[in-house]
Amino acid sequence: MPPKPFTGLPLVLITIGLSLGTFMQVLDTSIANVSIPAIAGDLAASPNQGTWVITSFAVSNAIMLPLTGWLARRVGEVRLFVTSLIVFTIASWLCGLATSLPLLIAFRVLQGAVAGPLIPLSQSLLLANYPPNKKGMALALWSMTVIVAPIFGPIMGGWITDNISWPWIFYINIPVGLMSALITWQLLRHRDTPTVRNPIDGVGLALLVVGIGSLQILLDKGNEMSWFGSSFIVTLAVIATVTLAFFLVWELTEKHPIVDLHLFLNRNFAIGTIVLSLAYLTFFGNMVILPLWLQTQMGYTATWAGLAAAPIGLLSLVFSPIMGRYMHRVDLRLLATFSFLIFAGVSFWTSGFNTDITYANLFWPRFLQGLGVAFFFVPLTSMSLSGLAPRDIASGAGLANFTRILAGSFGTSLSITLWDRRASLHYSQLVEHVNNANPISHQALDQLQSLAGSAEAGLAMMSRLIDKQAVMLATDDIFWLSGCIFLALIAVLWFARPAPHGAEAPGGAH
């Protein structure tokens, strides 16, 4: 017989305990974004290499998601949640102590791996211990935690980096993690779920780790190593291709697959998951590019870069609960279309930025984009799960989140590579116009040389100005391409069937 739901103070405490764990995990997906230049500089790496701190966490987090169900059945949901919290806290402490980029990446891999079960289990445990008539409130409180964390992440990360030091973006997890683990264990240790010794798809897991890991390293290091001009990159490409091909074949024939690829035979699941993943790839890539550009080229501190990124959460915070309450009355494809139109409009708007923009110019597009976020995750997740049988909902939600998080990691690497390539192209094009035959550039160079005091210093100043403009143009290119992708995804979206009224998505979409 299941235990009675909590009431009164215990209900408040377990809500706080589980929400803290969720908040900490979601916070760590965004808090490092604005700290990348500082981390890279301190660890003698380039800002582009510093983005591995983001991608390593995301990939290991995504790979662990399909394992969550098996692990929970094997050791119990409460034990798994508390153990993950404790190891996550230890990994956060180790991240702060890291003295080199490889060490930091290794600890971020560990941190991401143990973070995988936190979001699905926090929601599961919350619902299992709430009274039936308050489960809607439980989901609302849980969702608010997931929405608020990305707002605070960039601001906290920026302020801590500027006023203390970047290791403290990881150290702040220590008291939060310990408090969450203590509260959860004290209240739920006698309410753990039954354990079952189900077989694990070891071969599928090994192929997934090797294949995805090789592909992510290829994307991270490809631009730095001249892509397929490097034997190392070629080797990674061969390994990724072979292992992922074997993975597809194995999972389609395995009795207990770690990833149930048969779900993609469902039309709505396939279209919804693909659209959600590609949109998140584009969205998250922009979220990484913006603070990098502001700090490396526009003179923004980490704090102000965080404040420039944070407005995206304001309208999302207001409209997400409203959308969740009434979305069953509207065609989910219309809601997602509205989201993509907002995303596309904002992308085209920001593609007209120049080096003279003010904070207000940055604030309003990000503020409006928050409206798109409110209509993005939940409707698409609901649509993708709407055609699945009840027994497949949990697997479908896990697989959709797996592909989305993985797409975000790939989006980071691809956007950084494209950004760098476009900056180099624009630099070479702009330099062609700096010659004696061009009176404007000749006059500008004379003025710079006069200000600098020597011809060499004047040329150096000219080079820096050209580089700043080249990166600005590359940033505009990224935003313009993003707008085109969002518009194209609208067309793909409408190949899905209308979801039945009342279809609702499980949480965790964020």
Instruction: Assign the CATH superfamily of the largest domain.
Output: MFS general substrate transporter like domains
Structural class by helix and strand composition: mainly alpha
Please indicate the count of domains: 3
State the end-to-end distance.
33 Å
Q: What's the CATH C level of the largest domain?
A: Mainly Alpha
Radius of gyration: 24 Å
The helicity comes to: over 70%
Number of helices: 22
Q: Give helix and strand order, one letter per element, not per position.
A: HHHHHHHHHHHHHHHHHHHHHH
The major β-sheet equals: none
CATH topology of the largest domain: Growth Hormone, Chain: A
Global geometry: globular
State mean pLDDT (0 to 100 scale). Answer: 84
Catalogue the unreliable spans.
Answer: 502-510
Architecture per CATH nomenclature, i.e. the level-2 architecture of the largest domain: Up-down Bundle
* Fraction of residues in β-strands: under 5%
Strand segment count: 0
